[in-house]
Amino acid sequence: MQNTSLTNLNLNRNELGELAGKALAVTLSLTNLDLRYNHKLGKSAGKALAEALRNNATLTNLNLGAIDLGESVGKALTKTLCKNTTLTNLDLRQNWLGESVGKALAEVLCKNITLTNLNLFANDLVGESGKALANALCKNTTLTHLYLEYKCLDEAAGKVLAEALSKNTTLTNLNLKANNLEESVGKALAEALRKNTTLTDLNLGHNSWGKSVEKALADVCAKIPH
């Protein structure tokens, strides 16, 4: 018998295996599902969850953080997100999805109109995927929270992101912590903040910028109405 009343299910850190993951995919009638840190779910369970999301009309919050999804499952999820119309919060942190999945996610952000929160912390999205994600922010009109902390951006992607922030009018929270961004990116971001009117929370910690970036950011902050 399928349960039709349960809406919130938190199973994080339970060492769930492949069979449990597949069973959850079949009975996916929840609105909130947290599976983070279940490293044993396996690739086939991940693909089953991706397929279940394709036609799901109830799930709004999904946490798949740190479950070793890998590239193949990541791509399956991106295909699903192009069709899913209910998911608003997706956490994919620490899955090391890589550049090709990053590019696919960028395409999703250009089309998806429901996702508002996306966490990509520690997914090794440097290179062209970082630039693609940054460019997607020029087209996306629903995303309000984006987490790109730790090895998600290189210098080129950082500059593209700065340009995107000059145009984006929906993003309110952005985390760029620990990306080792160059000084030129810091200055570009400072300039973008002069034009952006919607961002309320920006994390630039652990990027080791010098005095010139500190001054540029301080000048921007000084002009913010108090």
Short description:
40% of the residues lie in helices and 11% in strands. It has 226 residues and is of the alpha/beta class.
Describe it for me?
The chain has a single domain, classed as Ribonuclease Inhibitor (Leucine-rich repeat, LRR (right-handed beta-alpha superhelix), Alpha-Beta Horseshoe), CATH 3.80.10. It has 226 residues and is α/β, with parallel strands linked by helices. The N and C termini lie far apart (57 Å). It is built from eight helices and eight strands.
Give the name of the CATH superfamily: Ribonuclease Inhibitor
Number of domains: 1
Please report the total strand number as a whole number.
Answer: 8
Structural Rg? 18 Å
What would you say the CATH architecture is? Alpha-Beta Horseshoe
Order of helices and strands: EHEHEHEHEHEHEHEH
CATH topology: Leucine-rich repeat, LRR (right-handed beta-alpha superhelix)
Q: Largest sheet, if any? A: 8 strands, parallel
Low-confidence stretches: none
In percent terms, what proportion of residues is strand?
5-15%
CATH structural class: Alpha Beta
| Spatial order of strands in the largest sheet | 1-2-3-4-5-6-7-8
Protein name: RNI-like protein
Pfam families: LRR_6 (PF13516)
